[in-house]
Amino acid sequence: MKNLTRAFSVYCSLLLVLMVSNSLYSQEWQTPLIDGYGEIKYFDKAAEQPDPNQEYKLLFDVTSDQQKQGVNKRLWIVARTLNMMHVAQVPLSNVTIVVAVHGAATFNLLTEEAHQKRFGKSNPNLDLIAKLKSKGVKLFVCSQATAARNISADDIHPAVVPALSALSVLSNYQSKGYSLMPK
Questions:
Q1: CA-to-CA distance for 104 and 92, rounded, in angstroms?
Q2: For residue 109, what are the CA distances in angstroms to 114, 117, 130, 140, 150?
Q3: How far apart are CA 145 and CA 101, in angstroms?
Q4: What is the rounded end-to-end Cα distance, in angstroms, of the chain?
């Protein structure tokens, strides 16, 4: 009986370890701030975390039209950044994000009508653009890129601000202390 009790105790201990280990590593992907975009898994025991007391001034250079989960990959990463800051309890007032869009990504900023006319299908980025804008993200489009692609100002989503160039956005905001986020 003593061996049976000991075996049961060992079994229960192993089962408890497995359950705790599984819960640590089986967290669900979540999109807590930008619903539906920029999925994250939060690990509160990770050594390096965003600092809720720090001001974050982040600059994203978006040139590619590469997609992730059906939307522009770099815009998806902007959403992921906001989601990570949110779960780390960084107040939204401490996060300022500027996005400079040019190159092939310029087409991702078209209105629904312009996208339908040019490509014969809906623009999958419009919901994400609206959600980023609602959280204070500043979206700029390069006027050099729109001119080179024969895109009129009326064809660009109204949440997006035309800039003389992406180069001016990138240089202006870096000189204001914004960190250029890696690609």
A1: 30
A2: 10, 14, 11, 10, 14
A3: 9
A4: 63
Write down the pLDDT at residue 3.
Answer: 54
Instruction: Report pLDDT for 11.
Output: 46
The secondary element (H helix, E strand) that includes residue 9 is helix 2-25
Which two tokens mark 7? 């075996």
Q: How confident is the model at residue 22 (pLDDT cuts 50, 70, 90)?
A: very low
Among candidate residues 136, 26, 133, 47, the one with its CA nearest the CA of residue 91 = 136
Q: Render pLDDT for 29-66 as a digit per residue (tens, 0 to 9).
A: 999 999 999 999 999 999 999 999 999 999 999 999 99
CB 157 within 8 A of CB 115: no
- DSSP letters of 127-183? HHHHHHHHTT-EEEEEHHHHHHTT--GGGB-TTEEEES-HHHHHHHHHHTTPEEPP-
- Name the amino acid, one letter, at 43: F
Distance in angstroms (rounded) separating the CA atoms of residues 180 and 183: 9
Which residues neighbour 121 within 8 Å (Cβ) at sequence distance 6 or greater?
A: 115
Going along the chain from its start, the domains and CATH numbers come out as 56-180 (3.40.1260.10)
pTM of the full predicted structure?
0.85
Reported confidence tier of residue 18, pLDDT bands at 50, 70, 90: very low
